[in-house]
Structures are given as structure tokens and as C-alpha cells.
Write a structure and sequence with these properties.
Elements: E1 2-9, E2 19-21, E3 28-32, H1 39-50, E4 62-69, E5 72-79, E6 82-87, E7 90-92, E8 107-109, H2 110-114, H3 121-132, H4 138-143, H5 151-225, H6 239-273, H7 283-320, H8 335-365, H9 374-389, H10 398-418, H11 422-446, H12 452-464, H13 474-529, H14 537-582, H15 593-644, H16 652-689, H17 698-712, H18 715-734, H19 737-779, H20 781-795, E9 800-804, E10 814-818, E11 823-825, H21 832-850, E12 858-861, H22 869-883, E13 889-893, H23 896-908, E14 914-918, H24 924-927, H25 946-953, H26 976-984, H27 990-998, H28 1008-1029, H29 1038-1043
Parallel strand pairs: 3-13, 3-14, 8-12, 12-13
Antiparallel strand pairs: 1-2, 1-4, 4-5, 5-6, 6-7, 9-10, 10-11
């Protein structure tokens, strides 16, 4: 039973768009879709089509599916938890399927294969045993509380009942004790109040005793204060420090005053050495004069440069002017003459350009022109068009036709008369008949004459134009008419060009007259300028331009020379003023600008030094005066310190005595203030609460204190006792201790009764479980185990065999026998991929044993998304082996590279019916697949000999202790191609090949004869193995110990 297509609507998460997959492969289909695209939903939907219980979460879902069942079409429709079956379009009863509790056996998810990354042997065996029982863990059920009970728990429940009964009795005794204490509570409360009053009286007595002591101490402090001198109260506490600071400051000021006087004398001596006088010219005025001199000097240099440049320009212009022209005799040119010459030059250029253009156009119009007459060509073209429109009527020469017919008929009759037989006459007549027909048809077409209208038009054309068409056929006439029309256009263009040339020649004559008039004006302007030599208009314009420029430069140079003379006079005057000012500095006169700069610099330095000395003298005098004032103030401060304390001036010993006595005085004064304040407070408190205590002495106060102390000491104990009694009474009234104890007692009784019922139920369940387990072991387990062992050998290509646990094992464990190494391994000693292959074999075996002839498809939902390539290959090859037995597989994934891996593996294992479907829009699955290599493959022989190929493979050496099953195939086969085929299929040892032979699966690789040869060679190794073991015990490994019967706990 294989799924072909599926359509859904109303599934949770896909209520609007629905899900659709179609054209599934009967062997292996890979459904590729992103996360949340509906892969898991499709798995549940397919389960729901077979077992309606899985559609309870989608009450509004509608599902339509098409299946293939033994070459019949089976339709399964699901709606509102109901399944309907249609076989070839006819509704039928539901088909017989495995029970619903086996639905999980047909869906393999990631958790099923990768649930525990570090499974122990026991857990793996239990998981596989659970798969072999259809997913029911009978061992876990036997260990559960449903079928087992503990005598210890019964004893605990009885102890709990006895404890709760003792708690009830204890609570009742506590309540009786509280009733007695509640009766004593009023007496305890009255005694407590008396103790509180006694404690208050003791506090007042303590205050009165303290008041007597403080008052006595106050009198002593007053007597001590009166012994100190009165000046001590005027001390501030810092007089010694102030005195030392004043004395040090006074000494520092004296030293600074002497240093200022010494510096002032030195500055006066330095000022006397300078030649600077106060009436000397200020340095700023000297700098201003120097700046003006510099500006005048710069202006002189600039004028000299401009004069030199003008002289050079005049020399250049004089070279351009003809030597025949006398520059001195030419009158000055005015602006009117220059303007007239410029306008005359402009007009001359315009007329010259106009003449050139006219000449060029006349020359263009005089090129090769047609000499045809446009009027004649136009009449000839009209005549040809009329000839073409005239009717083409033809007249045939019937006379000639009749003559030919009569002549041929006479010939025929002559031949017939001369021929003696009638048959020959008839033959000649029949032979001549086609000739007569040909003459009748061809002769009218051979000769004809034109119509009279076209002939007259032809004659008229020939009178108009000498040349004509080569023959007067319509096609030739039409071609000649087109040429004639082109000639007509050329003739018209030539006539227009001749007319234009006549107009241009008239314009050229006018332009030449204007040029002659300009020549007259040029001569007149040359005479005005004074140029007698013959020159052109352009030469005249250039000459006047150069003359004008020469005259302007000459005028400019005369102005520059005059300005230079004025600047030299100003420079001499300012230099004289500067020398007059420098005389006050004692500096000699300067004769040039450089000397003036040096002299001004020297004068500035002298004035600057004098100013600095004068400023420093003023600052030093000011400092001297300030120090003298500070010294006076310090002396007044020093004397005032002694006068304020009524001490003689400079009586530092008396000041030290007063300062040393001050701390004791201050401490005594502070104690006096505190005592006065405390006595006042105590007196007010006693006057308010117990004024009679102020009249008592110390002895009387001590006697009363002793009387009230005995009663006050019991206050705290009375308070605690009454509070505890009230608390217990309150707790007893608010709490439910007795009710709680009674409830716990009732619960213990109910629990004990429930355990009794549970023990009865567990006994019944244990009886039923034993019955079910016995029935399963007798009927199902052998078949499931055999099928699982068969599939496991197919999945591993005979590398392993599934065997049951030793008889003494209590836990449901299995073992895997390594056919290559000939040893039995625990499940935790297998690789993860091999263990997954075993788990898949068990699950497939149990599902197959529960089916009634109909093989249902297996669904894999992201089962291999986190596996590495080697593990993916191991599991996928096991699944491909299932498809070879007619089972349909549907693999859901979101990884495109997994689809590529499936495609690669199916190509390697010759599974052509692989389809990759996409749940996305379009079908990007196939275009995005990239084939991925899966594992390594042995190299091909490629013509190598057996010895060369075995050397290339480098197989493991033969180990005698392992027997013939562990011998590599490369050592047993004698055909390199056979060795490569077996290694490519994963068969590396003879043990694998032997297992496949027992299952009848060797025919795809080799024939019976070849297998017998390999087997004989392996038996030789077995014989050698048996002889080798004599005297050599097998190594004592963990597997040997297990085979000897040692349990896992001892190991």
C-alpha cells in the first residue's frame, strides 16, 4: 500500500492555503520544505488517514488521499473524524490495518534515533526490547507501582497512624494545663502592676541621689574657677602662634627692605651710565620717520622699474614703425582719427568677406550644368505618358495564315494519293493534324502590328526629342520615362542656377565699387596722419595703432620721471629730519637708507633699555615703600598682643604662663557648665514628680531605695510569665491543633485502608501481566526476533548478527556478533550508526509482524538532520534496503544537502525511483541540489594484476587467532574486479560474505562456484586457526569473560 498524492484543508496552521503533495515515488520520496512549511503536519495527517485517532486535534480538517494497492486505486477521505475508503471508485469497508497503538512504529523522528547521547548497554537493550513489544515497556510496567507493592510502606503507614494517635492525646493534655494557668492570670497581673510602681519609685530615688552628688561637684568647680587670674578669659588659644608669626614676619620684612634699598642704588648707577636724555626724540617718532622713508624709497624703485619698462616698450614700437616715418614730425593723434581708421578697417573687412562669398557662390553655380531644354523634355515626357495610357489593340495577318494552311493540306493530300493503302492514308492524316493545330496557334502570335494611336504618338515624340527608348515595349518606355523625368529635374535646376549666377554677378559689381570708395577714404586718412609713403588700409591701421601707443608711452614716461624727481626731494627732506632727531642720541648722521635703518635700530635699543630701567626703578621704589608700611603694621600687631592681656611690652614669659594654664581653665569651665545644666534638669524633674525627695539626705534616700528594690526585681519575670500564658491561651483559641491532629489521624487510617485495596489490585494486575507476557513470549517474540535479526544482517551487509542475551541474564539484553572478528559485543560497544541500524531493524520487524499482508509506508520526520555523513550513510543504506522489499519511504527534511545525499546514495545503490518534492512555491528543490560524496570508495583495478591490486589496497594481514571469518576478501578472491565489487558494496571480510550466503543474498555479487572457491580458502585458514590454538589460549578479553558467564556487575 503506497501513497500517491495527498490534499488537505483546514489543518491547524494551514486553514486557508492547505497542503498538497502529489506524484510520490513508490520507493523513496524526499519532501523538502523550510521550517513551519507543514512537514510534521503532513506526517500526522498520513497517520490520521490510517488511524483516525490522530486527527482529534483537527476537527475541521478535510483530507483526500490516493493510494496504490496491488495495482488498484485506493482513495481514503477523512472528514470530522470519519474515514471513508474507495477502491477503484467504489466505496468499500475499511481495510484491515495494524492496531492504533502501533502507529508510532511507522514514524521515525530525530528523538527516536538521537534521544540519548550516552546510552548505556542496559538502556539500549531495554529500548530495543520495547520496540520488539510494539512500544510497550513490559519490564517498566512490572517495576511500576501498578503491579508491585512494598511491605515496608505498609509498616510505615501503621507507624504513622500510631504517631497521629499519640499527637491527639498530647494536645488534650496541653489544653488542660492551659485552663489551670488561665485561673492564676488575675493575681499575676496585680502583682505585676505593683512591681511597675516600685520600679518607677526607684528611678526617682536614683535621680535624687544623683542630684545630691552633682550639686556637691558644682560647688567644688566654682571654688577652682575663682583661683585663676581674670586675664586668662581673654586668651583665644592661638597667641603663641600669632606671636611667632609676627616676629618671623617682622624679620622677613626687615631683610626685604634692605634688599630693595640695595637694588635701587644699583639701578640708579646703571641709568647714569646711559647717554639717553629725557628730551631726546621718542623712538616711535623715529620709527614713523623710518617707515615714511621706506615707503618713499619703495616708490622710487617702482617708478624706476616703470620708466625702464616704458623705455623698452618705446624701443620695441620704434622698431615696428617704418624708418621712413619721422616720429618727431608726426602730429599727435586724436581719438576721431583713430575711430575713423577703425571703422574704415571694419567696413573693408566686411566688403572683402562679402566679395569672397559672392565669388564662391558664382563659382558653385558655374559647375557642370545640363544643357537640355526643360520645355522639350517636359513635352517629351507628356507624350510618353500618353503613349503608355493608349490602348494596346493588335491586328493579325489572316491571309498569311490561310496560305500556310492550304499549302500544308495540299502536301498531305499528295502524299495520301501516292500511298497505295488506306491505312497509310489515315496514318498520314493523323500525323498532320497536330502540325495544323500548331500552325493555327503559333502563327497569329508571331507577327502583329501596333495600334494607330501609339504609332502617331511615337512619331510625335521623335519630332520633339532625337533620342528615345531602345524598343517601344511598355517596359522599355517606362524605364526611359523615369530617366527622362530625372533629366527634366536636372534641366530645371540648371536654369535656376544660371539665373542665380546673374544676380550674384550684379551684387559682386556693387561690392567692388564700394571697395574703390574705401580706397579713396584710406588715402585721405593717410594724408591726415602724415604718412606720405604708399601703404594699405591694414598697414595704415597698424601704423596708427603703433603711433598712438608710442605717443601714450612717451607721455607716461615723462610723467614717471617727474614723479621720481619729486620722490627724491621728499626722501632727502625726511632723511635730514631723521639725522636731526638722531643727534639727541649721540648717533652720527646717516647718508643712505641702510645707514638710517641701522641708526634707528640703535636708537630704539637705547631708548628701550632706558625705559626698562626707569620702570624697574619705579617698581623698586614702590616695593620699598610698601615694605616700610608692612613693617610698621607688624610692629603694631606685636605690641597690641601684650597690651590686650595687660602685659608689659615684650613680656613673652608672662604670655607663655597664661597660655599654658588655659587648657585646665577651659576644662574646669566646661565641667561647671555641664554640672549646672544637669543639676537644673534633675531639680525640675524631682520638683514635678516627687518634691519631698529634695529635702532628704543621702542616708534617707539609700534606705528607701533598698525597700523598693526587692519588689521591682520581679517585674520582668512577672511580665514574661503573664505574656506566655496569654500567648498560649490565644494560640489555643485561634489554632486548630486538635482538629489537625484528628485529621491526620483520619488520613493515616484512610491511607492504610487504601494500601490494603492497592495490594489487592496489584496482585490482580501482576497475575494479568504474567499471563500477557507469557502469551507474548510464546507467540510474538520469536517471529519479531528472527525478522529483526534478518533485517540487521541486511542493514550491516552481514558484518553483524543479532543474538539473544545469555540465559543467566535477568535484564532483557541483546548482543551483536561481529562476523569479521568472530566475537560477541555488547550494544554499548557498537558504533552509534550500527546501534541505530539495530533499532530500525527491530522497529521495522515488529511493524511487519503486525501487518496482515499490506505493507504501510514508513515516515521519517527530520530523523537525520544532525547526523554526520558516515552515520547518515549507515542509516540511509538500511532504509534503502527496506525499499527493495517493497516498502515505501517518505523522508521529510528542511536541509537541501540531505536531499542531495539521498540522491547520491540512491544512484550508488541503483534505486531509480527517487523523487524530491518541494513544499515551497515553484520547485527549487531539484535545481538547488548538489551531489555530496558519501564516504570513500576503493580504487578501481583499471587493468592491474591481482598482486598489483592487492598491493594497492594494502588489506589487513591475516591474524590466526581470529579464524577464517576475519580474513579480508582481498586475500581470498583471485579476480581484481570481483574484489572491487565486494569492497564497493561494503563487504570486506569473509564473515560478511558467509552471512549473506546464508540469507541467499550473494547472487548479486558472485556465482556459486566462485563462492565455493573462496569458502575453501577460508576453511584452510580455519584449519590453520584450530592447529594454531593448540598450546595457545585465546587472549582473556572482556568478551571471553562475558561468554564464560560472568555478569556485568562482576566485570
Amino acid at each position: 500500500m503506497k501513497l500517491v498524492s495527498l490534499k488537505t484543508r483546514g489543518l491547524p496552521g494551514f486553514e486557508n492555503q492547505g497542503l498538497t503533495i502529489s506524484d510520490l515515488s513508490p520507493d523513496l520520496t524526499v519532501v523538502l520544505g523550510a521550517n513551519a512549511s507543514g512537514k510534521t503536519t503532513l506526517c500526522r495527517t498520513i497517520q490520521g488517514l490510517l488511524w483516525a485517532e490522530h486527527l482529534k486535534s483537527a476537527p475541521e480538517a478535510e483530507i483526500y488521499s490516493l493510494w496504490s494497492l496491488d495495482h488498484h486505486k485506493l482513495e481514503i477521505q477523512a472528514s470530522a473524524f470519519r474515514l471513508r475508503f474507495f477502491l477503484d471508485g467504489v466505496q468499500v469497508d475499511p481495510i484491515v490495518l495494524p492496531p492504533a497503538y502501533l502507529a508510532h512504529s511507522y514514524v521515525i523522528t530525530l528523538d527516536d534515533l538521537f534521544e540519548d547521547n550516552a546510552q548505556s548497554e542496559t538502556h539500549s537493550a531495554q529500548q530495543i526490547a520495547k520496540e520488539m513489544t510494539g512500544g510497550f515497556d513490559l519490564a517498566a510496567l512490572r517495576r511500576s507501582a501498578l503491579v508491585s507493592w512494598s511491605p515496608k510502606s505498609v509498616s510505615t503507614a501503621k507507624g504513622e497512624l500510631r504517631r497521629t494517635q499519640a499527637d491527639v492525646r498530647s494536645v488534650k493534655r496541653e489544653q488542660a494545663t492551659l485552663a489551670a494557668e488561665e485561673a492564676r492570670l488575675p493575681d499575676l497581673t496585680a502583682e505585676y502592676h505593683e512591681a511597675c510602681r516600685a520600679e518607677q519609685r526607684i528611678k526617682l530615688l536614683d535621680a535624687a541621689q544623683t542630684y545630691q552628688k552633682k550639686k556637691h561637684a558644682l560647688l567644688l568647680r566654682q571654688e577652682e574657677i575663682s583661683a585663676y587670674p581674670s586675664e586668662i578669659s581673654l586668651l583665644l588659644g592661638n597667641e603663641i602662634e600669632v606671636l611667632a608669626e609676627a616676629r618671623d614676619a617682622r624679620d622677613r620684612k626687615h631683610a626685604q627692605l634692605k634688599a630693595a634699598e640695595l637694588k635701587l642704588n644699583e639701578l640708579d648707577a646703571a641709568r647714569a651710565k646711559l647717554h639717553f636724555k629725557e628730551e631726546s626724540t621718542a623712538p616711535t617718532r623715529l620709527k614713523n620717520i623710518m617707515e615714511r622713508l621706506q615707503r618713499i624709497f619703495d616708490e622710487q624703485q617702482r617708478l624706476k622699474q616703470q620708466i625702464a619698462r616704458c623705455r623698452g616698450s618705446l624701443h620695441d614700437i620704434s622698431k615696428k614703425i617704418s624708418p621712413e616715418v619721422s616720429l618727431e614730425t608726426i602730429p599727435p593723434l586724436n581719438a576721431d582719427i583713430l575711430t575713423q581708421i577703425e571703422l574704415l578697417q571694419r567696413r573693408f573687412e566686411e566688403i572683402s568677406q562679402k566679395q569672397n562669398l559672392l565669388k564662391a557662390e558664382i563659382q558653385y553655380c558655374a559647375k557642370e550644368l545640363s544643357n537640355d531644354d526643360p520645355e522639350s523634355l517636359s513635352q517629351a515626357a507628356a507624350t510618353l505618358r500618353r503613349w503608355l495610357r493608349a490602348p494596346d489593340t493588335r491586328s493579325y495577318d489572316f491571309a498569311t495564315l490561310i496560305r500556310w494552311i492550304v499549302l500544308f493540306s495540299a502536301v498531305l493530300l499528295t502524299v495520301a494519293v501516292l500511298t497505295p493503302t488506306t491505312g497509310s492514308n489515315l496514318l498520314w492524316m493523323l500525323a498532320g493534324l497536330p502540325v495544323l493545330i500548331i500552325i493555327w496557334v503559333a502563327l497569329p502570335r508571331s507577327k502583329h502590328s501596333q495600334s494607330n494611336l501609339r504609332a502617331s504618338l511615337k512619331e510625335q515624340f521623335e519630332t520633339i526629342l532625337q533620342d528615345g527608348p531602345p524598343d517601344w515595349e511598355p517596359k522599355s518606355v517606362t524605364s526611359f520615362l523615369e530617366q527622362l523625368e530625372d533629366r527634366l529635374l536636372s534641366a530645371k535646376a540648371a536654369a535656376w542656377a544660371r539665373e542665380k549666377a546673374r544676380r550674384l554677378e550684379a551684387d559682386l559689381a556693387v561690392a567692388q565699387a564700394e571697395g574703390e570708395q574705401l580706397e579713396v577714404e584710406r588715402k585721405s586718412l593717410a594724408a591726415k596722419v602724415g604718412v606720405t609713403a604708399p601703404t594699405t588700409l591694414m598697414g595704415l591701421s597698424l601704423l596708427t595703432s603703433n603711433l598712438d601707443q608710442y605717443q601714450r608711452l612717451a607721455s607716461e614716461m615723462r610723467g614717471l620721471e617727474s614723479a621720481l624727481t619729486d620722490e627724491e626731494v621728499r626722501f632727502a627732506s625726511l632723511l635730514k629730519d631723521l639725522n636731526t632727531a638722531l643727534q639727541s642720541y649721540g648717533i652720527p648722521e646717516a647718508q643712505s637708507l641702510d645707514e638710517a635703518v641701522a641708526a634707528v635700530k640703535l636708537a630704539g635699543e637705547s631708548a628701550e633699555t632706558a625705559c626698562k630701567l626707569e620702570d624697574e626703578i619705579r617698581l623698586t621704589r614702590s616695593t620699598h615703600e610698601q615694605l616700610h608700611q608692612d613693617l610698621t603694621l607688624l610692629q603694631d600687631k606685636y605690641s597690641g598682643l601684650f597690651s590686650r592681656l595687660n602685659l608689659a611690652e615684650s613680656d613673652e614669659n608672662g604670655l607663655h604662663k597664661l597660655c599654658n594654664a588655659r587648657p585646665a581653665y577651659l576644662a574646669c569651665a566646661e565641667d561647671l557648665k555641664v554640672l549646672e545644666r544637669e543639676c537644673q534638669t534633675l531639680e525640675q524633674e524631682l520638683a514635678q514628680n516627687a518634691p519631698e525627695l529634695l529635702e532628704l539626705d543621702q542616708h534617707q534616700l539609700a534606705q528607701q531605695h533598698l525597700e523598693f528594690s526587692a519588689l521591682a526585681d520581679r517585674r520582668e519575670a512577672l511580665l514574661q510569665e503573664t505574656t506566655a500564658i496569654k500567648t498560649r491561651i490565644s494560640d489555643a483559641r485561634q489554632g486548630r491543633k486538635l482538629e489537625t491532629a484528628l485529621k491526620q489521624q483520619g488520613r493515616a487510617q484512610s491511607k492504610l485502608a487504601g494500601m490494603r485495596d492497592q495490594i489487592v489490585l496489584a496482585s490482580a494486575a501482576l497475575f494479568l501481566l504474567n499471563q500477557v507476557e507469557s502469551e507474548y513470549q510464546l507467540k510474538n517474540e520469536p517471529l519479531v526476533f528472527k525478522e529483526a535479526a534478518r533485517l540487521f544482517e541486511i542493514f550491516t551487509r552481514g558484518a553483524y548478527k543479532l543474538v539473544s542475551a545469555p540465559p543467566h541474564e535477568e535484564t532483557p539484553e541483546f548482543r551483536a556478533h561481529d562476523t569479521a572478528l568472530n566475537r560477541t559485543l555488547r550494544l554499548d560497544q557498537l558504533s552509534r550508526g550500527t546501534r541505530m541500524q539495530l533499532q530500525l531493524a527491530v522497529r521495522f520487524a515488529f511493524a511487519a509482524s503486525a501487518e496482515s499482508g499490506i505493507k504501510l509506508p514508513f515516515l521519517l520526520d527530520e530523523a537525520l538532520c544532525i547526523s554526520d555523513p558516515e552515520r547518515f550513510k549507515a542509516i540511509s543504506e538500511a532504509l534503502i534496503a527496506i525499499t527493495r522489499e517493497g516498502r515505501q519511504l517518505i523522508y521529510f527534511t528542511s536541509q537541501p544537502h540531505e536531499a542531495a545525499l539521498w540522491q547520491t546514495l540512491t544512484e550508488q545503490h541503483d534505486v531509480p525511483k527517487l523523487k524530491v518534492l518541494s513544499l515551497s512555491k515553484g520547485d527549487p528543490a531539484r535545481s538547488s541540489l548538489t551531489l555530496v560524496p558519501t564516504g570513500t570508495h576503493p580504487p578501481e583495478p583499471n587493468g592491474l594484476t591481482l598482486e598489483e591490486y592487492v598491493a594497492l589496497l594494502k588489506p589487513a594481514r591475516i591474524v590466526p587467532a581470529n579464524g577464517g571469518d576475519a580474513v579480508p576478501i582481498a586475500h581470498l578472491a583471485d579476480d581484481p574486479q570481483l574484489i572491487w565489487k565486494l569492497l564497493s558494496a561494503g563487504i570486506t571480510t569473509f564473515g560478511q560474505l558467509k552471512t549473506l550466503f546464508k540469507r541467499g543474498s550473494f547472487s548479486a555479487f558472485l556465482d556459486q562456484t566462485t563462492y565455493e572457491k573462496i569458502k575453501a580458502r577460508a576453511e584452510v585458514v580455519d584449519a590453520f586457526h584450530e592447529a594454531y590454538q593448540i598450546g595457545r589460549g585465546r587472549p582473556l578479553t572482556e568478551g571471553v569473560l562475558e561468554a564464560a558467564g560472568l555478569s556485568g556487575r562482576i566485570l
